Amino acid sequence: MTDAAPKGFEQTTAYVKAPARDSIGDQQDVAGLVENILADVRARGDAAVRDYSVKFDRADVDVFEVSMADREAAVAELDPQTRADTEFAIDNVRRFAEAQLATILPLEVEPLPGLHLGHRVIPIDRVGCYVPGGRFPLLSAPIMTIVPGKVAGCREVVACLPPNAHRAMIAGCHLSGADRIFRIGGAQAIAAMAFGTESVPQVNKIVGPGNAFVNEAKRQVFGPVGIDQLAGPSEIFVLADASGDPRLIATDLLAQAEHDVRTRVGLITTDRAVAEQTAAEVTRQLETLETAGIAGQSWADYGEIVLCADEAAMIAYSDHVAAEHLQVHTRDAHGLAARLRNYGSLFIGENASVVYSDKTVGTNHTLPTMGAGRYTGGLWVGSYVKIATHQWLDDEAVLKVGPPASRQSASEGLDGHMKAAQVRVDRLHQAATA
Asked: Which cofactors are reported in the record for this sequence (predicted)?
């Protein structure tokens, strides 16, 4: 590791290994292939989906949709403790989503006499949830995308998962409340949900993480359908002062690093001893970690330790990174947390491990990466509803807003606008003098 001062953060000493990333450039090599897949599925529907399932997943699927009997069988095959833990997580995610939904209220106001403005909270009609297969059966994945959609009141929640995904994933989709489940993966799944096929209904919005092909497909279909976000590899940063426990910090960093060899993991600290001891702890723990082949490469290629001169510099650097997962291990964790602005989800104090959110506490783990935390939060129940405005005007309001609207339209050279604004005013004046 070598010392470096990141531009704009002169009060930091950074031990940086992570290369620069962006959501488009990282996927330039797959963009052309994805474009062809999308066009083919749009033109040939199920036939194209079947061809790509054979080509990429080595799965020749006759019927894409999972039958109710097969869904129930997959649930029955679950280990009883696994099912209980899954339902525990589902209940927590549901309760938190319900609490969030309760804060999204319809609105009716009268800012001027007779001028009535408002909005309604309308569930999106049909959403599509991409459920990644991954190296392991990630039972939390369907919970995070399907449950909020059901809480929001979407008429139909469709789930797609790779045809070779573990059967426990089908059980997870079923228990989470998916209305329909399809064994389709990759870019072809995104295409099928975006455009519709003979088997798969066209959805209004697609949510859920995936690999580079899934991410690029979501980027390319955006417009005709909505998407939640462009999610890159996972990220975790820990903010720590001299009170930080290097052993605990290293454990949490490696827990995320085992997700993918491109996971970005980092420590931002004001204490040199914590920085050095954490680096040593990572090396020590990798010796016995069963997933060291993944986590070790992630640490070697994308690990980062930043030593800051003071707390202000630590906050500035953290807000610049805008980490997907941000843990705060300081003496006054709540006080520091209140000063942070850019992150996907915040974990305050040593007890709040990212792993708990990943699995069971109830907050959503589908979060912004690659700096997107500077302008957006993660997936939540609000992602599944539309806030649609409305208005109506009594006669007295027309006499207030009509004349300035007419004059403004005339000044812009919009004669039709001017006449539409003025005709109602003139009609009211005529009625008053009749």
From this structure: Zn(2+)
Q: pTM to 2 decimals?
A: 0.90
Residue ranges with strand state E in 155-282: 156-161, 180-183, 205-207, 226-227, 235-240, 264-269
Task: Report the first-to-last Cα separation within the chain, whole angstroms.
Answer: 87
- Cβ contacts of 49 within 8 Å, gap of 6 or more: 41, 64, 184, 188, 189, 191, 192, 197, 199, 200
Please state, in angstroms and as integers, the Cα–Cα distance from residue 116 to each residue in 108, 395, 417, 418, following that order: 7, 12, 21, 22
The catalytically annotated residue of 174, 259, 325, 365 is 325
What letter represents residue 32's amino acid?
A: G
H or E segment and range at residue 357: helix 354-359
The domains located in the chain, with CATH, are 3-21+232-362 (3.40.50.1980), 27-230 (3.40.50.1980), 394-433 (no CATH)
Please give the helix or strand (H or E) that residue 391 lies within, else none: strand 385-393
Q: Is residue 324 annotated as part of the catalytic site, yes or no? A: yes
Residues of the chain falling short of pLDDT 70:
1-28, 134-136
Q: Please choose, from the candidates 346, 384, 344, the residue with its C-alpha nearest in 3D space to the C-alpha of residue 368.
A: 344
Contact 41, 195 (CB under 8 A): yes
Task: State the pLDDT at residue 24.
Answer: 45
**Cβ proximity of 278 and 236 under 8 Å:** no
Distance, C-alpha 151 to centroid of its chain: 17
Beta bridge partners of 337: none
The angle formed by the CA atoms of residues 45, 183 and 27, to the nearest 5 degrees, is 75
Is-contact 384 125, C-beta < 8 A? no
Rg for the chain (alpha carbons), in Å?
26
H or E stretch covering 305: strand 303-308
What's the CA gap between 115 and 395, in Å, rounded?
9
Q: DSSP for 129-151, please give it.
A: EE---TTTT-THHHHHHHHHHHH
Coil, strand, or helix at residue 184?
coil
The tokens of 192 are what? 């099928």
Q: How many CB atoms lie under 10 A from the CB of residue 196? A: 15
Distance of CA 224 to the CA centre of its chain: 19
Whether 216 is a known active-site residue: answer no
| Candidate list 216, 281, 324, 350, residue with the active-site label | 324
The tokens for 223 are: 């417009």
What pLDDT is stored for residue 25 in this prediction? 47
Alpha-carbon torsion (357, 359, 363, 369), positive or negative:
positive
Strands (E), 211-288: 226-227, 235-240, 264-269
